[in-house]
Each structure stands twice: as C-alpha cells, then as structure tokens.
What we know:
By secondary structure, the chain is an alpha+beta fold.
Amino acid sequence: MSHNTISLNKQRQPLDHLDSVWLFGYGSLIYKTDFDYLDCKPACIYGWARRFWQGSHDHRGTPEAPGRVLTLVAAAGARCVGMAYQVTPDTFEHLDHREKNGYLRLFTPLHWLHEPGNSEHGKTEGVVYLASPDNEAYLGPASDIEIAAHIARSRGPSGPNSEYLLKLAQALRDMNEHDEHVFAIERQLLALSP
Length: 194
Ligand code: SIN
C-alpha cells in the first residue's frame, strides 16, 4: 500500500452522510488540535496498544530520513487511553491530509473515561487513524534505546521528533495515564540528552 492514504480514505470510508463523527486521538491528535471540534473528552479503546513503529516522512522526518511516530497494534487485554473529538465530516479533509503518511481510518468502539466532570458513561463508535504493517512508511519494532536514538536524531517539517514524544508523554501524564512503552522511550531519550 502506498504511504499516501488521502484518496484511499476518501474512497473506503465516505462520511458526508453523517452529522458528526467522533475521532479518537492516541498520538499527536491528543496534544495538537489544529482543527475545530464540537466536543472533546477523554476516552479509551480496548485491544490496542500504542507503538512507535510508524515512519514519518512528512511531519517528524523526511522521505530520506523518516522519523518515528505512533501507530496502534492489536494487543489482547490492552487499553489505550486518548482524547475523543466530535467533529463535522468536512474536518476529515484536513485530518486525512495531516494523517496521510500511511494511516487508514477505522471505526472502532470508544469508551468514555469515568472521571469527574464527565457524566456520560458507556460507549459510542469513533474513527481512529491506524498505520498497519503493509504501508510503505511502516518501520516496525525496535528496542526502546534504538527507538529513542532514532527519535533523538530525527526532525521534519513539523519540528523535532523528540518534541512529538515529549509532548505526548506530558499529555498522558496530564491525563493520569501511564503508558510504559511511551515512558520507557522517553526515559531513554532524556538519558541521551547532554
Ligand atoms: C493519532 O494521534 O491518533 C494518530 C497518530 C498521530 O498523528 O500521531
């Protein structure tokens, strides 16, 4: 599969017949909201885990020297906490462009987090952007120290790859969420810094 997924997403999953759509963000979509939304609240998905296994040609690296960003991998018993945004379907013009480097949209059950101020329990369906191993930008697994070193040396049009990791780790901390994959790589990155 090509790493540019804009037209694939449009063809495979038209959304224009809907009034609004819940989008689930687990990576940069948690801390970088460069789009309008109607509502926003913390949520989680089950059976998926965050992994820094996707290459970034367009945001945190270049085609010659891709950075490492997140995708989700299926993991029995896993719970991935993130942020859900209620958006109008036209927002996907922007989102598909932003997530064009190998990510396909998928509908999945979203569960609202039980926390003060969030009176709504239960679940809904939402869209998540997933980069699977068959996309050309996919990098796959590596050790925490290899991933941290890769992130430390990468940079792209959206800025240093390290910023992606550090902002995400802080956003998860702000949500009281411990993600050992993210935090272990953050520890390795900070140990590399002078
Ligand atoms: C997401 O944040 O949900 C998708 C991956 C990314 O853009 O970091």
